[in-house]
Amino acid sequence: MTDELYTVRIWISSDWARYVSERIWHESQHIQKQFDGAIEITFRVAGLEEIKQWVLSLGPEARVLEPPELIYEMADSLARTKRYYEGVDIKQPAAAESMEIYRERNLFHV
């Protein structure tokens, strides 16, 4: 039993292009440099779950361009994750100060 083969294209920001370019992530990868320093990386993979987890690990530095099935899965996963953080003021200071504020507001349990 084998999964369907997908051609996956992912845009990687210029900030992360060098890091991503320096590794072989998959035997089928092809990297194309963009004029702004970003890259587009293409894979031919069986199944989407592993590549989805990899893209999620890159956060806003990566964007799926195709296939539509993976774009949908990413959007769904991120929307579900975003619900955990509703009500959090992203303008608050980071680190310990904001953790204390979030604790006081009972936005998460530490």
What labels describe this entry?
110 residues; alpha+beta; 4-stranded antiparallel beta sheet; 4 strands; globular
What features would you describe in this structure?
With 110 residues, the chain is of the alpha+beta class. The chain has one domain (5-104). It is built from four helices and four strands; from the N terminus they run βαββαβαα. The chain has helices at residues 14-21, 49-57, 68-82, 95-104, and strands at residues 5-12, 30-33, 39-46, 62-66. The chain has a four-stranded antiparallel beta sheet with strand order 2-3-1-4. The longest helix has 15 residues, at 68-82. The model has no long low-confidence stretch (mean pLDDT 85).
Write the SSE topology.
Layout: E1 5-12, H1 14-21, E2 30-33, E3 39-46, H2 49-57, E4 62-66, H3 68-82, H4 95-104
Antiparallel strand pairs: 1-3, 1-4, 2-3
According to DSSP, the number of beta strands is 4
Low-confidence stretches: none
Overall form: globular
Into which percentage range does the β-strand content fall? Answer: 15-25%
Largest sheet: 4 strands, antiparallel
End-to-end separation in angstroms reads 43 Å
Overall residue-averaged pLDDT value = 85
Rounded to the nearest angstrom, the radius of gyration is 17 Å
Strand order within the widest beta sheet? 2-3-1-4
Order of helices and strands: EHEEHEHH
User: How many distinct helices?
Assistant: 4
The helix-and-strand class reads alpha+beta
Number of domains: 1
Helix content: 25-40%
